């Protein structure tokens, strides 16, 4: 490239298209597969890769010490995300597999099974159509760093690693109550998961190796080698406390496996903040714009500026602004479009608030090509909104805002000259809330997925929540609540 030439600037439209269809992530995944598999015909390999359409399928390792509940949580996850449940025992039952037969022969002779042989067995299973199309959860393997390396050399790498753990005393107590149904292979527990059928109860047996001494020995071995797994998957694992109700363990595991890892793809923030009056949209927008150096696009401010500057457009909307009547959507959209089309918004990104207020305005924004990639709904109860707004006032001399409860005027002199904005009367606030509630559900469906934030708390706590969702990729789940 000629260093004297200006660098080529990617158009905003191309960036939006690439982000919508995950172009950068697809290329990154394809490059990773190329480097691992090293095909003789890279072009055909990439074509075949794209035809599989499986970049988003689950690839999960679920690990943990004995009695941590791995099988239970794995089955719940498989049911929820419709993927394949894999264990080494199930793979060894495949009599047609040469690798399974070799492992069985090693076991009969009481010889140590090579890690590469385990990896070959797993690769053979993962190459089946069901795993390619629907993904998989592999339970209880790898157990050591050497086994993890063997899998990596075969090109087997999970997207998420869930590690269940609990204090040894809890795990020993759990293991003592384990029972197994020899007919189905199902595992039950005398305390947590006892079958109601007397027929099943009668055929349950106590498995080998669950005495207190044997369990303690296995736990000691697990603790000795578990750090190797953590090192092997340092950026992918998430440890969950298994000493809590299984529904809570499952919820945390599901949240982790549905999250997306940050990628190196170019990312231009286009953030929309929506919420009732008094929910703190203006403050959050200012904090986000300052932190990430993006453009703060306030609909109200954009409409006031041309009026103050006495431009032609300002004269046209002045009667609406002065009488506090809604400015026609076409005029608002013209003002918003002009601002969002500027180079700083296209290259640095933007955070918008005050628009759209209904689905019609949202459709106009979409038709103009301005599509947010993060939509936050700031949730505040109506009584809290009324409390926030009806007791706030403004100093007409300094322009400083005060609040009777949270930020009172510093002196009686300042308090005496403060004025209450007519729009903050309880009657007007109630009307504004009615308009908000009439449109909020439709807007939520229009922008699905959206991120709900509890805004009835310290504003800097709210900002931390919003910030974490801005820098991380959106979850695979639909709506997110934080």
Model description:
This protein has 482 residues and is an alpha/beta fold. It is built from 23 helices and 16 strands. Strands 10-11-9-12-15-16 form a 6-stranded parallel sheet, sandwiched between helices. Helix 4 (70-81) crosses helix 13 (246-257), helix 14 (281-292) packs across helix 23 and helix 15 (299-309) packs across helix 16. The longest helix has 21 residues, at 212-232. 24% of the residues are buried. Mean pLDDT is 85; it is low at 1-8 and 477-482.
Rg from Cα? 29 Å
Helix proportion of residues, in percent? 40-55%
The overall strand count is 16
- The neighbouring-strand order within the major sheet is 10-11-9-12-15-16
Strand content: 5-15%
Mean pLDDT: 85
Largest sheet: 6 strands, parallel
Q: What structural category do the secondary elements indicate?
A: alpha/beta
User: In terms of per-residue confidence, which ranges show pLDDT below 50 for 5 or more consecutive residues?
Assistant: 1-8, 477-482
Q: What is the terminal separation in angstroms?
A: 46 Å
Number of helices: 23
Shape: elongated
